[in-house]
Specification:
Length: about 400
Amino acid sequence: MSKKVRSFFFPAALFVLLDFYIFQGVTTAIQSLPAITQSGIIFSYWSISIAGLLLFIALMQANMFRTAKPGSLALHVFAVVVGLYIAKVIAGTFLLTDDIRRVVQWVFESVRSTAADRVHISRSSFMSLAGLVSGSLLYVVMLSGFGNKYRYKLHRHTLRFPNLPAAFRGLKIVQLSDIHSGSLANRKAVLEGIKLVMQEEPDLILFTGDLVNDRAQEMHDYVDVFAQLKAPLGVYSILGNHDYGDYVSWESAQHKHHNLEHLKQIHTDMGWQLLLNEHRVIERNGEQLALLGVENWGARGFTQYGDLKKAYEGSEKYAFKILLSHDPSHWEAQVVPHYSDIDLTLSGHTHGMQFGFENSFFRFSPVQWVYKQWAGLYEAGKQKLYVNRGFGFIGYQGRVGILPEITVLTLV
């Protein structure tokens, strides 16, 4: 069996097993319905499951996830199919929970009963129905999220720092992160996002990494769009984990290197000042602050290109410092324990998982089980971290509850 065939054969086999497992729950949940209704539900279930499996195999064999154009029908079909199986995993979790209950109860009954009077522990119709309903609702919600991927939301925060130089009081910063241009397919919608930024009349624009998904060429149709970002004190940027091309099989190391150099040139072509483990001095009305930018410093298996020590050297004399670091894990790992005079750190990376719930009283996203700082403002002593939820998207072609973000920070 070739490597390419194995890459989709095993997931397909798991999907088949999942389909049969969920089917047991379906039969339990509908057992009280009329026979003709049961037949219709069973026919619909297997028709959808078989169609989804065949589409998955066809799309994987054609490598559509990598080769399809952003916004294409193939990518949306792929997302629908994957979403279907995510919903089945959720439903299967309910069924598995009930099956574990049955096993535990059976063991308990076996201990206290003789072989003659042991009873059969049946699967709960309630749990089966709850699992199917939960999975179905999740699927509907994920489909509805397709329409949110360009619904840019402004997040405004006023940040207070006692040591902020007087000339920078009222400084307005717009932060963008995780553009992921390889996923973008609607220039008009993206231009509306750029328009929102410029309407804020920011003094400084800062971008915290992941301009592309993998390849520099993904930016070719958007260079003129993002070049419209202008600010009196400049537009500064850093690289994120996706910008290095680490998730692509390149023809050679030279091709990969050329891709990264091409991407760096694109930052320059747009008028952005790319910070590569270095700092710049921002001056306003005779006073100065230091802006530090590191290459991607990744935790949890991500490659670490960042060198904060190198970026910091020479910035000691400035009373106020801002750090751009793509991965928010960097803040607690190095910044807080070792660089107490870095006042504000700006990050992205998490996207808020593009899925969650947020209101004035409560917020949740599964990504918080991986990242302690996953969206919004965090503080440790006098140091602050802001994690942007991302301008673009990747993988899931939508957003549920966690909308694409434009951050507006005012320093006082």
